[in-house]
Every structure is written in structure tokens, then in C-alpha cells.
């Protein structure tokens, strides 16, 4: 019952986001650390200096004083490098009265720790928990892209262990990021996984396009694929997955369908919801509109962890007006795109994207 009520509240806030700027964000991206256990070719987060990162006590204070986030995304870096991750997750679930969805990605390199921690997070009873295991190549190619020996096999083991938890409120997926480093790999990845996990399905893979960010990934010039091959693979992948029959599957399908428009124009396919429905906070409590735009809006430590002071500030409102006028860096990453689709539901349902017809026979 509690989960249903929270889902209804989230649904109400999503519908309201189609009409006006929210009095507070319903989706929060909280970057817990820049530490990472991989050395990825398409991302420079792992090169960033780690200092003065948020503490578990600060996270507790923040959520206790700023309640009402139905959707919280925890990310990094690799969040499982933090020894206090369970304490942070407990703060999020215990003090956030509206929490419906908690989600986070993982490199999948610490199987025992990841599976054990996720099992304990499930014990905190979040209504819905989604975990994405990042996978960017088949076998040795993934190891090369991630800069770590046995990275592929570790991902397989982690996915298997998480699926083995068999919790009704847990969703586990592989996350594949298409970049110039893995062009042509998408179906080889699926085939390599299927050899080890025979029951795997196409809908067990969430596919996105590498994005470039000067302030977060610090990877300008590194990641975005320049070849149409990436989009051809994505077209066929969507055809193989078939029609989405679940709301989450529809949301991902809509995101992927609009990737072609972003790829060709370099602009968000729909009016962005950053600073209207969502917000990005880095490990030092610096507040930004999103993961792409390095427009610092304030610091929560300096603001006494009072988010309303920053959310309602003139600088934030001015930044929101710039976003609404499409004078931002533009992106189409899942971190920002999902709430943008949800905040433009009429357009998302009605807009058609010109795509090359795809046929596929099993």
C-alpha cells in the first residue's frame, strides 16, 4: 500500500511537471563520489581529484531537511567504493517520505560487496530499486574499454548474483553506452552475455549514447560516436526488443527512438526539464542544473543544506529560463532525458521520429 501511494504521488508530480515548474525537484541525481575502480576510455571521472566529499552524516542532514524526492539516483564514480554506502542508502530511504524509486549504476567489479550491499538495501524496503551493471564490450573488449582485467567476467558474475536475489521490488539490467570505442559491438555484447546467461533477453539491456560533459565526465572529444553505424545498430536492437508493453520499457524505448534526432541535430529532442523537475548535486554539495551544464548554482554546505534557498534563487530561475529558451549545452543522456520525456508527455506520445525502416527476422 505504501508503495502504491508513493507511486501515485510521483505520478501526480510528473503530470504537474507538464504544466509548470515544480516547487521542488521530484528527481534528484546525487553524485556520491568521483572514485572509480575502472579507467574508462570514454570518461575522465576517474582522473578527478577526490577530496572533501560528502559524508553520510551530511546526507542524513540533507534528506531530513529536504523531504519529498520520489526519485533518487545515486551515482559516481563507482558508488560501491564508498564504505558508508549502506548508511547513505538508509538515510535516503528512512528520511525521504516520498521515495518511490531508488536507482544506481555500478561497474560490477566487486561482485560480493555489490550483491551483499544491494541485499541489505532491499532490507530497507524501498518500493522500487533499479540497478544497472555497466557493460561496454564483449569479453576482452570490455576489459580494454574499462581499463581493468577481467572486467567483463566480473560484470557477468555481478548481474547473475543480483538477479539471484529474486526480490519483487528489484530490477537489474545491463547498461550499454554506445561510444566511438565500441562501434559495432552491440550485438556481439548480447551474444557474449547470452553464452554465459542463456536466459538473457534483449529487454534486459538498457542502451544509451555516450555524452560529453566538461564539468562532470570531463570527456569533451572522447566519447560521442561519429558514425551512423551506432544508430543502425540501435535501430535493429529496438526492432529485436519489440513493442514496449511496460511503462518503464516505453520510457526507455522513447528515449532510444529520439537518440537519432539528437545525434543529427546536437539538440535535445524535447524541451528539457532540468531545474524544473530535476537537479544535480556533486560530491562537494555543489548544485548544477544537470550533469552536462557546468553552471554552478550554489553550494548546499554553504546554504545550510537548505535546498529551497538555491532552488528559488534568482540565479537558478535565470538558468531555468535559459534552459527553457534552449540556450544550454543540450544533451540526451538518460539522467536528464527520462524526466524530460515525462514532462512532455503529449509531445512524447505524438511526435514521430524519421528513422530508416528496420526489418529483422529471428
Provide a compact summary of the structure.
This protein has 362 residues and is an alpha/beta fold. Helix content is 39%, strand content 13%.
Question: Please, could you describe this protein's structure?
Answer:
The protein is of the alpha/beta class. The chain has 14 helices and nine strands. It has helices at residues 2-17, 56-65, 85-95, 111-122, 140-146, 151-163, 186-196, 229-241, 247-257, 259-265, 307-311, 314-324, 334-342, 345-350; strands spanning 27-31, 71-75, 101-106, 128-134, 170-178, 205-209, 278-281, 286-288, 298-299. The chain has a nine-stranded mixed beta sheet with strand order 6-5-4-3-2-1-7-8-9, with helices on both faces. Strand 5, helix 7 and strand 6 (205-209) form a beta-alpha-beta unit. Helix 4 packs parallel to helix 6 (151-163) and helix 9 crosses helix 13.
Provide the fold topology.
Layout: H1 2-17, E1 27-31, H2 56-65, E2 71-75, H3 85-95, E3 101-106, H4 111-122, E4 128-134, H5 140-146, H6 151-163, E5 170-178, H7 186-196, E6 205-209, H8 229-241, H9 247-257, H10 259-265, E7 278-281, E8 286-288, E9 298-299, H11 307-311, H12 314-324, H13 334-342, H14 345-350
Parallel strand pairs: 1-2, 1-7, 2-3, 3-4, 4-5, 5-6
Antiparallel strand pairs: 7-8, 8-9
Helix pairs in contact: 2-3, 4-6, 9-13
Question: What is the N-to-C succession of helices and strands?
Answer: HEHEHEHEHHEHEHHHEEEHHHH
Q: Please summarize the sheet with the most strands.
A: 9 strands, mixed
Radius of gyration: 19 Å
CA distance, first residue to last residue? 41 Å
Number of E strands: 9
The average pLDDT value, as a whole number, equals 91
Strand proportion: 5-15%
Alpha-beta classification = alpha/beta
Can you list the strand order of the major beta sheet? 6-5-4-3-2-1-7-8-9
Number of helices: 14
Which shape, going by the Cα principal axes? globular
Uncertain segments are: 352-362
> How much helix, percentage-wise, in residues?
25-40%
